[in-house]
Design brief:
162 residues; mainly alpha; Helix Hairpins; globular; NTP_PyrPHydrolase_MazG; NTP-PPase_MazG-like_N; MazG-like_dom
Amino acid sequence: MTKFEEFENVIARLRAPDGCPWDRAQTHMSLKNTCIEEAAEVICGINILDQTGDADNLKEELGDLLMQVVIHARIAEEEGLFTMDDVIQSIIDKMVRRHPHVFGDSDGPGTDGSQASWDEIKRQEKQGKEWTEEYLPDAFEEAKELIEAAKKRKGFDTKKAE
């Protein structure tokens, strides 16, 4: 068993009927605040690494962010939506598709590895799904609000001195 599989089993156990009441109660919606908070803490870990050379905080925070991915995938599996394997296969497919200069036909489109090639491949992938972009401005606004709420929970003053 890999460490990842072991971790998936830990999350499944936490979500089991005789697991942790808090973990069992979580939903995609209820985890939004911890998801954004953990992402911010990864940024903190990167900054600590950059400024001090100490990687311990980044390692810990990446684990916390990974928990967000695994618990969301577990909830989705319980709801019959998709599995962690589906999530992993999706990102594998995307990375291979967006890197034809590494994985594909060396004479095909996008083989120069440029940002323009990446953008064109991404544009083609999104055809027929353009409507999803309409949700992004609200998501960015919600993310800002969730960050402000996280700062308050952590005890940081969110108002600048005047």
